[in-house]
Amino acid sequence: MLKPSLTLFSLLLATAAALPAGISSSLGSQHAGHLATRGGCTTRAEQVQGTSSDTNGRGVQVKNADSQSRSFFVYANSCDYVPLKYVTLGAGQSAFVSLPQAFQGRIVRGTTQVNLDGRPHLLGTWLEIGLDGDGSGKGWADVSLIRGCDGAVSVAAADGTGASTGFQDSSILDDAPGDALEAKDSGSKVIKATEGLLSVVVEAARDYLASKLGYDKAYIDDYHGNPVICSSNERFSATFYRGRP
């Protein structure tokens, strides 16, 4: 797992507490004790310009390795209605997305039409990021498929250590069986969440992902593996490969 302040289902329990009745019923509860809240949620997402400069601060260099323009959204833990930031990148483009001190949350694919509509959209691949914020300068990252998979993501520490995690297999969606698929709110068919209510495993999705990736490249369920990397300077570089927003 990530550091205790950012574990797979701690994000979901925070969301469950804040969501209206009927939405939270689909979320798991295994890691409720690990939640670390970081103040209030934003009410308006900040758009990051693709040409914004990297000032050597904490954050993630995000690259769009898809063949089409894609948008990526930064969500803080328990703040699922409105993203903190978002950036739209053309094919092959990249931009540095700065993160606040002690940030705990995720970066996901999406569309401005859907992800800026003021509602939670949880289905898809999560690039999870946690910054210690205690003066150590350390950050942590993993790729989680517990809430579904809408494409491949890899992430590396930008501190010269070469630490990396995630995967690059863009065929993972193409080969998925029908009983492992579900539509995102955008209408795109992606791989289902691997865990449902009370962390009950959705075997069709979990077993397919495990057959393709094993348990060393991403969190596929809440019970196997520990594919987390550390950056000593709170900086990462991430690549989003072909996927379905």
Topology:
Blueprint lengths: L9 H9 L27 E3 L10 E6 L5 E7 L8 E5 L4 E5 L5 E7 L1 H4 L10 E6 L7 E6 L6 E7 L6 E3 L14 E3 L5 E3 L11 H11 L15 E3 L3 E9 L2
Parallel strand pairs: 1-4, 2-14
Antiparallel strand pairs: 2-5, 3-4, 3-6, 6-7, 7-8, 8-13, 9-10, 9-14, 11-12
Kindly list the characteristics that best describe this protein:
245 residues, mainly beta, Thaumatin, 7-stranded mixed β-sheet, 5-stranded mixed β-sheet, 10% helix, globular, disordered N terminus
Compose a concise summary of this entry.
This protein is mainly β. The protein is built from 3 helices and 14 strands. The chain has one domain: Sandwich (Thaumatin).
Structure explained in plain terms:
This protein has 245 residues and is mostly beta strands. The chain has a single domain (10-38, 57-243), classed as Thaumatin (Sandwich), CATH 2.60.110. It is built from three helices and 14 strands. The strands form three sheets. The chain has a seven-stranded mixed sheet. A five-stranded mixed sheet has the order 5-2-14-9-10, with no helix packed on it. Strand 11 and strand 12 (189-191) form a beta hairpin. It is globular, with a radius of gyration of 16 Å. Mean pLDDT is 86; it is low at 3-38.
